[in-house]
Amino acid sequence: MTDYGHDLLFGTFITPAAGDPQRTVALARLSEELGLDLVTFQDHPYQPAFLDTWTLMTWVAAQTERIHLSANVLNMGVRMPAHVARSAASLDLLSGGRFELGLGSGGFNEAAVAMGAQRRTAAESVTALEEALEIIRGVWDTADRTPLRVHGQFHQVDGAKRGPAPAHDMPIWLGAYKPRMLRITGAKADGWLPSLSYLDGGLARGNAIIDEAAAEAGRSPSAVRRLLNLGGAITDRSSGPMQGPVSQWVEELTRLALEDGVSGFVATSDDPDQMRAFALEVAPAVREAVGAERRSAGTVPAAARRGTAALAARRPGIDYGSLPPELAAGAVEPGDSGYGAVRHTYLRSGAPGLVLRPRGVDEVVSGLAWAQQQDVELAVRSAGHGISGRSTNDGGVVLSLRGLRSVEVVDEATRRVRIGAGATWGEVAAALAPRGWAITSGDHGGVGVGGLGTTGGIGFLGRLQGLTIDRVVAAEMVTADGRVLHASRDEHPDLFWALRGAGGNMGVVTWLEIEAGAVGDVVFSQMTLDATDTAGLLESWGSAVEAAPRGLTSFMILGRGRGGQPPVAQLLTMIAAEGGDADPDDAITQLERLADAGPLLGHQAQLVPYSAVVRREEAHHSGGGDPSARSGLLTHLDQGTSRAVERLLASGESYFTGIRATGGAAHDVAPDATAYAHRHQSFALSALGADQGRLNEVWDAEIGPVMDGSYLSFDTDDRPERLLEAFPEPTLSRLRAVKATYDPSNVFRTNFPIPPAEG
Question: Which segments constitute the FAD-binding PCMH-type domain (predicted)?
């Protein structure tokens, strides 16, 4: 028996008929309605009776919500690999990670040549496909910042820019039959997608060649999924293989799964009744039969099987073999194909020994318990956008919560929303926009809910709504000892107090319940000012912001002058109203006051939904340069403080200097109401530099005397005094007491560790 342990997929193979295009689309939609996993289309660009496959797949992706799509298979004899890579990644991004890339070397050579394709022998077509694989993977590898160069016999790229990366770890499936193509499949592809009727020598021969090639390449044979296009028909009586009743199909497909390792079954039919029988009768029965046999045999999931190359990349201190099966299925190790997409964060490079990707709170409990048994560092990640970079590490375990990303309204009257910690604020904004709701949430849609929602949250709606943590009304948290606790004003109120400002020190938050505001369209302004008189600009802008109505929140980014040009300041300003749309006339008046802060160089403003500013962003994190960072809170931008910021900028040690307005509604909260005690400061200053020591030196000299507290999400300085700046007494002592209750062993110690109180 050969069972590679992949989860089963069931799909359809639909003719892309141009004569009745809407019927073709309707069959694809029916495939989704029937609960199938995959819909595929053949690709013959020289066939005038067929729709163009790329156009069809794009249209079907827009007409569906859940089902995955693929060409079956894409003819690479007529397509440029770099273009295919970008088209595939684009369709994957637009569809929310639902595209799979099926490729073939290209048949019907004369028809392709008639359309202008290059004439190639069969051997040359295989060589060209192998070159195409290298180019496609190279375009997707955005973690590599060097230009892509591949000098092949048939395909060349010389200095091509990489990207975009797909939304998910997109597999490449090859339609392969001959030995050389099968060896390429085993060594370099993620799946084998032949048609049963075309196989010469059966599946066993192909599997043997693929498995041998995979082993020679240091891969596990299970790295290659086996899919199969099925002909035949579901009928009342048996008349041969794949020609018979449902019971016969179930028996044959179960045997193919358990004995030949097939895990993807694609039915070749344009008959809706055949599709219904396949989806509603055959597929569930095969899943049940295969599942029962796997449970009895103790079959190891494919994701847990690694080849020699992946095994060699494993890190000391981690007992990989003891990882529970439910976690192994989604875990990513060094050497896995998806490792590059999960190792880094937005601005911080990392090389963890294992990334766990739990899909629910039970798996968070299991993952946390297992991670504590390992002799390595543990990091918890919501989305990985934080500047401090503490959601990755080198050689340790990362517990990634991106699988917990639901957004659910639990009370319409109070606008109470339950949000998974792994969601991003862009996803939240998009989900709430149809209701005219919004939650203040930083200034970038790629920021994760769990990190921001437990630290502070200085956002574009901050002066109107307060900090993000001020809107949190309940949370679910997994503690170090494996308990799943609900925290609110009525349940574990000490934990509820602590997690609003220091949640990363107390446990793993899996969801937050937050009360959204009723916010309609907002005015979003981007204004550029001459900052030659930096201190004067800061003082005038700060005064204008503090005097403005609470609906106005403004952020400033300062840049040094280059090439003889004066320094400039970019203002990003949002004007919003609680309960409805912002008033454009009133916004103009307020923006004119900001423009008076310095010579105006440029300005544009729009009336848009909040979700158009804090946009949904797919994370393609590649490290981002590993900057050093410092952060401090400022009570006011008076003359002395403004001059100190001017001197920081003039030093050249900060290549990015930002000031975020806070205050307004955030000042309504008592300092002891949450673990974030800074309730009188009006601005947050942050600086990014290339060298931590030099940045610290100028920061301590110039900003230290005028700052009043710290916002740790923007700080990479790990000297102990940072802790008391972030949590001034009596907050720190109170946090240490809560820490002693819920994390006495200091398991959660990588995010500016708070030592548990003794005794």
Answer: 347-519
